Amino acid sequence: MVIPSNDYIHVYDASPYKIVNGHIATKIPCDQSYQPILNILVGQAPKLQSIQLHMIEELSTPGKMCIYHADLEPSSRVTHTTPGVEIGTITDIAIQNPTAESIELPPTTTLDIGVNEIEPGAGEVEH
Known about the structure:
By secondary structure, the chain is mainly beta. It is 0% helix and 48% strand. It is built from no helices and ten strands. A four-stranded antiparallel beta sheet has the order 2-8-4-5, with no helix packed on it. A hairpin with a 2-residue loop joins β4 (39-44) and β5. It is globular and about 40 Å long.
């Protein structure tokens, strides 16, 4: 599977419910510094933001594939922001290619989503 430049794959939608508690684990391409090449976007469409991922070094190979995880909670942090910037309402999850080149996903690429608790009230966002 290929993700074109500056595009994404939408992988989960809980609407009209919102995710109150959950977890994601993902194995995606990374650079030599263990930084992910792709973003995992979460939030309520169309307002999706890159969630801060935590690497599992023992299961990662720099410059190839790395494993990351993150908690899915409204208070989860947004990547590359100042402290205190939170995700907010979560109904949607996507994998984004933020680069200027298409990326072919290696065969062992995964995104596992565990949803422990949902509740009604996501509401509608104007599209």
